[in-house]
Amino acid sequence: MFAAERLKIIRQYLQANGQLEVTSISTMLGVSEVTIRRDLERLEQENFLIRTHGGALLNTDSAEAPLPPVQDAPSPYGREIVQTVLSLLQPGDVIMLSSGPLAGPIARELENTGFSLTVLTNDLAAAQALNSAAQIRTVLLGGQLDIGTGAVYGALTLANMERFYVNKFFFECDALSPNLTITVSSTEKAEFIQGALSIAEEKIMLCPSDRLGKAAFYRVGDLSLVNAVVTDSAVSDSYKKAVFERNLRLYTSIDLYEFRHTRDKLTQGG
């Protein structure tokens, strides 16, 4: 990760949290504590922070405005999806979380599983949420930081992810079109998802029911690229049938293995 990218992440972390510890940030970014201390020295010279023993505090007199607060609470249907994701995990999983509204809420719940996990993510809020989870190894992928979304993207991000084995990739679509095309709101997000799909063993798409039947601007690909879909209890029977007809697994909060005993009925029109 380049120095400029680290400095952006450190700035955003401090603006969101007010303080940081050198050991935690070095682990999160995958660089030495010496490197982080140099970064903090530079930011102190810019009057952005005040260094302390083992860390730093945000300089509240800094002219920079704070970042908007992270929206922590997902909708009721979003909470259903978060709980379903947790039920799909096993001890020892190496998972990747893509940036999106549900990444942070999922990350905050992972520690409660008690599982030893490795989590790769391009979402800064998700990485921050896992910072204190002792049994979880967290890897924040490098790349160009998008301040608006708190996510890293770009060629470096794609190159970094290829270094890892991922057995479960969880990603959010911004919309699933009527013809079951996965779409998202930016080309950077589309490229990230496409890259992760190519290396992950199991691909699991998260899609709240209110995003079904719609289309965002950038195409990721056909729904057949994934192995499973996680949605909420408001999903219509027509979409259940469409997923089952593609021989994909469908998970909802009502019944995590719903597809096993309703697929035949729906596909036969019963």
From TrEMBL:
PROSITE patterns: HTH_DEOR_1 (PS00894), HTH_DEOR_2 (PS51000). GO terms for molecular function: DNA binding; DNA-binding transcription factor activity. Residues 3-58 form the HTH deoR-type domain. It holds the Pfam family HTH_DeoR. Keywords: DNA-binding, Transcription, Transcription regulation. SMART domains: DeoRC, HTH_DEOR. It comes from the Bacteria. This is Transcriptional regulator, DeoR family. It comes from Enterocloster lavalensis.
